[in-house]
TrEMBL record, chain B:
Pfam families: ER_lumen_recept. InterPro entries: ER_ret_rcpt. One of its GO terms (biological process) is vesicle-mediated transport. GO terms for cellular component: cis-Golgi network; endoplasmic reticulum; endoplasmic reticulum membrane. The chain crosses the membrane at residues 55-77, 98-115, 121-140, 152-170, 182-202. The keyword Transmembrane applies. GO terms for molecular function: ER retention sequence binding. Belongs to the ERD2 family. This is ER lumen protein-retaining receptor. It is a multi-pass membrane protein.
Length: 10, 215
């Protein structure tokens, strides 16, 4: 996974 | 995507669609709190600000669109549809949005992963989702009479919460950098709010009697 956090949950 | 996350998303989706279908079919929203539905619409609107900026997957985008569309449709039905709005228990549904929205907003300004508009709104949506069911639970307490669909709606929402917690536990052990304190704590608070309702729901189901909440 990338270091930039993305919200991948709903 | 693990099985718990998928089961959580599916029960969440079913809860919203069951409710929308019920309102659409029987043209009644008796027992449903408009306050809770408006709070959920606000939750989705503030959480999915990233819908056009961060692409995660087709699944993710479609689910976001369905949640936004269905939650705003429910609010539209309850406020604008001439038959549905007549069945709304306005006098009983007295919880003020303000008392939930303001503390959540203040908390989001203080506790967030990053002090940017999108991240503050994301945190706000998590805090608000945790407590958005409260007007619905108050309404259930007041009206006492809970029809099957309203019971199923709250049951499905509770199942969604439980599956998401299993999903977090699973991800914590399988993904090296998966730590989301804000998501977990607000999610746990939200699930605990359902525990009381679940107790009575299972009792009525076990004894095969109509669901009644105590005074």
């Amino acid at each position: 996974s990338s270091t930039e956090k993305v919200h991948d949950e709903l | 995507m693990n099985i718990f996350r998928l089961a959580g998303d599916m029960t969440h989706l079913m809860s919203v669609l069951v409710l929308l279908l019920k309102i659409h079919t029987i043209k009644s929203c008796a027992g449903i709190s408009l306050k809770t539905q408006e709070l959920y619409a606000l939750v989705f609107a503030t959480r999915y600000l990233d819908i056009f900026t961060d692409f995660i997957s087709v699944y993710n985008t479609i689910m976001k669109l369905i949640f936004l569309g269905s939650s705003f449709s429910i609010v539209w039905y309850m406020r604008r549809h001439k038959l549905v709005r007549r069945s709304y228990d306005k006098e009983q549904d007295t919880f003020r949005h303000f008392f939930l929205v303001l503390p959540c907003l203040l908390l989001a300004l203080v506790m967030n992963e990053k002090f940017t508009f999108k991240e503050v709104m994301w945190a706000f949506s998590l805090y608000l989702e945790a407590v958005a069911i409260l007007p619905q639970l108050v309404l259930l307490q007041r009206t006492k009479n809970i029809d099957n669909l309203t019971g199923q709606y709250v049951f499905l929402l509770g199942a969604y919460r439980a599956f998401y917690i299993f999903n977090w536990i699973y991800r914590y052990f399988t993904e090296p950098h998966y730590v989301h304190w804000i998501t977990w704590i607000s999610g746990l608070v939200q699930t605990l709010l359902y525990a009381d309702f679940f107790y009575y729901y299972f009792n009525s189901w076990k004894n095969n009697v109509k669901l009644h909440l105590p005074a």
